[in-house]
Amino acid sequence: MIGKILGNRYQIVEKIGDGGTAFVYKGVDNLLNRHVTVKVLRPEYVSDQDFVRRFRREAQAAASLSHANIVSIYDVGFENGIHYIVMEYIHGQSLKELIESQGSLPFRTAAEYAMHIALALSNAHKHGIIHRDVKPHNILISDDGRVKVTDFGIAQAVTASTVTYNGAILGSVHYFSPEQARGELTEEKSDIYSLGIVLFEMLTGKIPFSGESPVSIAVKHLQEPFPDAQKINPEIPDALCQIIRKAVQKEPEKRYQSAREMADELSAWLQGREGRRSIDPAPIRGSRLAQTGEKKQKKRINNRKLALLAGSLVLMLLLLFSINYILKTFIVPEVDVPSVEGETLEDATEILTAAGLQVNVEIRIPSDTVPAGHVIKQEPAAGRTVKKNRIVDLTVSTGPELVEVENVVGKMQREATLILDNKGFEVEIVEVHSEEPPLTVIAQDPGPGYKIPKGSKVTLRVSKGGQPIKLQDLRGRTLEDAQSWLNLFGLKLRHVSEQNSDDYGAGLVCGQFPEPDELVQAGDFVDLIISKGPKQPELKEHKISIKTEDIPEGEEITVIIRDESSESPRTETYISDGQPIITTGWGSGTVEVRWQDKVEVKNFP
């Protein structure tokens, strides 16, 4: 995009931001030779024709706003698949960046910023434009300290086209009003609620609610009490805390009636007044009573003339009203009822009003199929021909019925899953290392007690045992040493076997399972193999024949055999009978034959 020229006029210079719906660039208006901000819709929204239609309509409406605290919109265009808006370029930073750099703002600075934001919202509300995404990211602070609110068009288009069955809305859930969290129709007081959160964050440096998922944060907006700013910083003035409390009431009717009213309260505090003052001047009485009877008489005459004239005017008005009433009663044009089932209440109202019909929200009921804030049914039905100004009754969805999340922490994974399945929730399992027994649920989100729609996801964190360690090389240790190391890390010795080993002496560990350096954790089993020493080679048996024909019969013959079968010699005794003596030897060695005082030695094999 850098260097590209849009509308034959706006040249892209550099990228300065990346929002949820658009890429933000700094540009130059070549016609007027000034810097501008160009917002280009992300590709995923370009294909959504309904979104694009809303975006262009709301951006064009926002372009009509003219206020010192609202970023001006200069142009809206489309070129080669690129939808863009051209806005005033502000030298400065966003309020979010300012809060992140300073932590919290001085009390008077926060109050002044909030007052200017409220004045900007008041101006927009007078023109029928609701922001619906008031947050520090959409508030710019110029280098000279001016406050500018931006993204009116994008906020409305996104909100209108991204409501889903479970209430998920693109935007910052940290600043949602309760009615936005429920997916209901949002009006001026939703912006007031969000501004109350912005003022809270400016004074404390913190957001009021946080959580691991958008659903859990939205539920907190609906169910949990709003935190007290003075508990974070006791020095915050009581008056500013009261302004926050009134702005963030969960029931819209209990909030400020208008953004202007909130701005007046902030202005009064900045001027050192506790609240707005009203002066009811007493009627001024004259000090002289010199009225003559002549003047009184003239006054009575004038009064009679005025009464006659007023009576004539009343009669004429009654006549005109009667004629108009008769015409409207007997000559009423007819219109076809358009289809609005499935539309948002806001769009349905707009469509029916444009067709010359009136709208009445007859009932709001839960629905598992129709998103919150959308029309389930209309009466009269679409396609019928009715008199103009006929009231069309609408049944509007409040979204899926909310179900309370049960506490399953401490239960086994299977039991916890069955409990949540029976409640109609989708269960997501995340395995984590923990000292708790494996398959035990150690945390859940949303937590117990929260009410969320059926079909919503509940995430369970399930233990998969302790942190794994590398199994040490136990070879070369004695069985006792190896057992001690296994006990130290909670490992269990399952099986011990023996085998010959040329590398390890008898009685030492020569093998293990799992292998060294494999990951194990407490409770796992380990098998060990103990060495029996080197394996003895197989010895060949040799037959040894000793001749005795030269030895007199009856002589005692001693045969001593030294071979590889044992370290000690083997001694055998025979009586000569003239026949050869047959014996055996293993491997190799010597045979020593003794009789009388003679000794004869020979080798074998």
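Second entry:
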Amino acid sequence: MVTLTINGKEVKVKDGTTILAAAKSMGIKIPTLCHSPDLKPWASCGLCVIKNVDPRTGRARMARACCTTVTPGMNIVTDDAELRNARRTVLELILSNHPQDCLKCSRNQNCELQDLASQFGLRDIRFKQILKNQPVDDSYAEIVLNRDKCINCGRCVEVCQDVQKVFALEYNGRGDKTMIGPVGGVDMAHSPCIKCGQCASHCPVGAITFSNPITEVFAKLADPKLTSVVSIAPAVRAAIGEEFGMAPGSLTTGKIYAALRAMGFKYVFDTNFAADLTIMEEGNELLARLKSGKNLPLFTSCCPGWVDWCEKNAQDMLPYLSSCKSPQQMEGALTKTYFADSIKVKAKDIYNVSVMPCTAKLYESQRDKNMKASGAQDYDMVLTTRELAKLIKMAGIDFNNLKEEEADSIMGAYTGAGTIFGVTGGVMEAAVRTAYFVINGKEMKPVELKAVRGLEGVKEAVVKINKTTSVSVAIVHQIGNVQAVIDQVREDLKAKKAPRWQFIEVMACKGGCIAGGGQPYGITDDVRKKRSAALYKDDAKCKLRQSHKNPEIAKIYKDFLGKPLGEKSEKLLHTTYTKLDNYRD
């Protein structure tokens, strides 16, 4: 423990604690802009400047609180007239290079720069406004870069390079000519970007956003020729409440169903249903590979950011990738076939919308011809959690006071296994529950597989199915952790020895979908844990907790699909992969 003084009060904190964190422990808020508790500090903006006063001479040296660690006997001043003036000057300089179009900005009323300007009472700026006048990079609809709004805080670069290790973004130029953009001066579509959206999630302003025509939804809902259908992903229910002032981890499933109906959707489904379906297909795929001993380990394929990364960076692993589509695309294909047939409507006359926690899901819905398994585009619109919240507000719906409703029954029922798909380890846990039953003819007890839970970057376990069968599994989340797992698999294959893991779950974002690039801003490990806890709570309260027990899943196989991995399932629910260049021509 280290003893120091902050604003005249003595405090003890752990060695290695930053001044910023030490002050926070005392209820003192030092302003920051480049700092994110989710990333390593790198002291870019200078807003968190404080004074370290020498008790012997009274001389004060300025330091940046986000990256300066405490030392014994420090005498810190976090606020006085000089510091306030310095911080105001930093803010004015940033605003002198920033557009003043807050009313039209996607981050209006949810912008860290706007909040700080208000906090410091800025009404006039002493410096001449000089904008970068750079064109908007909208070569990707999923990740749109507006350099004029960029404040060079560097968060996007840090998360892209240090956390995800994708290296799609970098600093270009030097000094006041510095600009952040895709590597090598190309556009986003020709960079190694995997559309995970973590850059957008960590941007404090409106410099990285989407170009999704979300208001088109209202026009389509009003079209009498169209039958509107919507489904929501597992992780959305644990996060959207934050957009309406609720605490992180508030479970709002029934309110979302009610809001979607109030917006005008005729049918409301739940992608958890398709998560259960994915387990039936992927679980049987795993059992088939275990039986044949070929193409092991089996990698999960429900994360489009991971699939895109694999197609670009680990093409030798594509034969080991599950051929199963993601729950989103399974839901989409069945909505425009099985469901369309049941209500006697043509696929082209269904307006099908998906609500996802992920920006890469926009890309996935149109990635290739496999996403038109119904003969039409299986999904017509993919909304992120943040975008759905905007539409609910635009529709004048009082989300917090809505009475909870249920999903429609034909493709809305789900088990606890389906809901935990939204958290890292959830796919693996759900699959093991069903694999155990298929092999043993009885349910696994306890049903929870806690060895695969938590935020450790790479987790592994050996699951004993029975006296003669065990399955070795690995769970990796945050794309920057994937390479080490791939290297181990390659080493095993080269040595022609049994793989260390037989089944590997991969999620591109830390924590899984609960922290996807389309979720509410302000993600931290504390928020991840609370959102995860909400999904585990939803699982625990479900009467049915194994995918194979979902009665609607049993019905769809009996009435339509036939059997897992059958001819119709292969056509509608499975996909293929393509080798892609990291830098496209």
